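seq:
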Amino acid sequence: MTAWGARLAGVRGVLLDISGVLYDSGEGGGKPIAGSVEAVARLKRSGLKVRLCTNESQKSRGRLVGELRHLGFDVSESEVTAPPPAACQILKERGLRPYLLVHDEVRSEFDEIDTSNPNCVVIADAGENFSYQNMNKAFQVLMELENPVLISLGMGRYYKVTSGLMLDVGGYVKALEYACGIEAEVVGKPSPEFFTSALQEMGVEAHQAVMIGDDIVGDVGGAQRCGMRALQVRTGKFRPSDEHHPEVKADGYVDNLAEAVDLLLQHADK
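struct:
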């Protein structure tokens, strides 16, 4: 058996990151990464189970899927695991009323959530809403609580759009953690519960799945801690130094999603 055969044998399900793997977001809906539209189509025709697993928190699932379909991807909302719906479920189950430090585009995801008299903070990639005033309000809400709860939709450091790298939510979360002396609860990658939810929705066990992403820590490291295999693409936020990360080593590095799909279709069912 070849090296790739050993790494990919027995894969029945594939989790795909979106930004940096399928496309680079940006003005006009972004730009698909070369070969990715056909790669997704080939995966879906192959009989392997496919699920999109994203930390996107600047767009509703509906808008995200609409943009992907406009770019040529054959995907639906039901195929996407994203943090906002998971966070809403947690808020409802625990009777939490959040102060929302989120992007305007995802506020609609929280329409059924009571936000009066907040007893927690939900933070996401808020973009221009990361003002001092809004960050300080989140800080004040947390400091007034006996048992402060900070829920973060993802923990990314940065991501890539067509115009370059962009600062993600993780740095702002760290600021609130430091100022309040607390630790955030992460809903999204690299949270084990988030990956487990995606696997359950796909109907496969962790050892039968592979994650394909551009983030060595959030995608690769998070998936591997759940017992999955993980490939890193050299697109999106990938940096050459990722291949020498001191703590995380991918099961394989590929130039792009198309190459990953070629390898999967050669070896996954062996």
